[in-house]
Amino acid sequence: MPTIETTELSKAGIATTATGQRHIPSSTRPDGTVRKEIRVRPGYRPPEDVEVYKNRTAEAWKNRGSGGVPGADGLKSENDPAKGAATNKNAKRREARKKAAASTSQTDSKEGENAPSSSDGQPTPGKGKEAAAPPAPMDPEVEKEKEAKKLTKKLRQARDLKDKKEKGDVLLPEQFEKVIKINELIRQLEAMGFDANGDKKAES
């Protein structure tokens, strides 16, 4: 029976003619014999041609990292001009502040050195830095006392842990290390001029 050749082939190799009839075209076997054409009854769908069911939620979950943020490209293109305008505004504001600071510092220098702040009540930048600088150097005696307080606290905790151990309590490894360091803490305190209780030694 003559068939009208078509280019429409399914996954199973079924061709559909212009009249709508479906068949598997004839083919040649490796030994040279010819397989005859097989008609496919209407309505039959081989397993190869059945579409695999795809759950939209599962597909979306599988491709969740590849797509990026939905709508991000549109936002970028919309926001770019706005960003440019915002940066321009910020640059203009900065320049205006610099000019204002320069003009106030000039007026202050003309008025005299005893004026503590600018006309709007804000301290001038240069004087503010000078005022902030003096508190930086700390008294070494105060530093030494702070360090001694820390060491005394550690020593007190270590002694408490030692008492617990003597009563029969089980100590954690880090607690045991603290107990071992008692003598070292006492030596550090003595080197700083303090006794084992954290009191300053009387100078002889």
Automatic annotation (TrEMBL):
Residues 32-62, 141-150, 157-167 have a biased composition (Basic and acidic residues). Residues 20-46 form the WIBG Mago-binding domain. Residues 1-167 are annotated as: Disordered. GO terms for cellular component: cytoplasm; exon-exon junction complex. Residues 90-100 have a biased composition (Basic residues). Residues 16-30 have a biased composition (Polar residues). GO terms for biological process: exon-exon junction complex disassembly. SUPFAM superfamilies: Pym (Within the bgcn gene intron protein, WIBG), N-terminal domain. One of its GO terms (molecular function) is RNA binding. This is WIBG Mago-binding domain-containing protein.
